[in-house]
Amino acid sequence: MIHGPSLAIGAGIASAAIIIAFISFNGISEPAELSIEDPPSVQQTGPPKITMNTFLANGSPVLGNADAPITLVEFGDYQCHFCNVFFKSTEHDIVEKYVKTGKVKMIFKDYNIIGPDSINASHGSHCANDQGMFWEYHDILYSNWNGENNGWASSSNLTMFAQEIGLEMDRWSKCMSDGQHSKIILASNEDAGKLGLTGTPAFFVIGPDGKTTKLFGAQPLEVFERIFEEELKK
User: Fold this and answer.
1) Is the dihedral angle over the CA atoms 185, 93, 38, 202 positive or is it negative?
2) CATH number for the domain that contains residue 204
3) Is the dihedral of CA 176, 88, 60, 223 positive or negative?
């Protein structure tokens, strides 16, 4: 079954406020028509608005071989139902078949559309990254997903997740309380806006020649495989 994205209502709402306070984003999670389309092109002339950094910067550390010929970028929200569907039904197979074999590398970027707990969860993952454990925290968040705006990503649970993966808690807690990674979270959300994203999950497959393909929604493995295999022939 192909699953649609969680859709943002008013994706541009006061995103700058992330730096000074955790704010709520209105959102819904309903199936929507899926599409595979070309994203906005990297601009070669004039003031740069969309560049390769729009896809690659302000995100997670690379998962996989940094020299892998294909890059898979996901814009996601840790509270998003369909992001969780992708994580549980497809991501593991991509990692096993393509990431661990050096064919694809993955980057996760924040697009916080559900609520304030989404932003807190993003902070948790970036604070875990300070200790080299971004992907472990990313995985434990999605493994414990239990709905939207219902408290599963509360401060107490985020702390418990940090303890479970063995983070040094004083350092992680200080990072959280200081909001040390607000700027990168804001910048990632702004990148999503530049790319015209209206929901999560949204994916960009960047091939060895720089060609970029957009996938919208929790697409099944076969869809990713088809694009990966086409790109690997180049």
Assistant:
1) negative
2) 3.40.30.10
3) negative
Burial class (CB in 10 A: 0-12, 13-18, 19+), 91: buried
HSE-up (13 A, CA, CB side) for residue 89: 17
227 domain residue, yes or no: no
Residue burial 130-165, b: 16+ Cβ < 10 Å; e: rest: ebebbbbbbbbbbebbeebeeebbeeebbbebbeee
Q: Is 146 helix (H, G, I), strand (E, B) or coil?
A: coil
Q: φ, ψ for residue 218 (rounded to 5)?
A: -80, 75
* Of 185, 155, 223, nearest in space to 18 by CA: 185
Residue 18, in any domain of the structure: no
Instruction: Calculate helix-pair angle for 134-143, 155-164, nearest 10 degrees.
Output: 120
- Residue 173 belongs to what domain range? 36-41+51-213
pLDDT 10s digits, 23-36: 332 332 332 333 33
Local confidence band at 50 (pLDDT 50, 70, 90 cut-offs): confident
Q: What is the DSSP letter of 17?
A: G
Torsion sign across C-alpha atoms 58, 59, 63, 67: negative
Contact 65, 98 (CB under 8 A): no
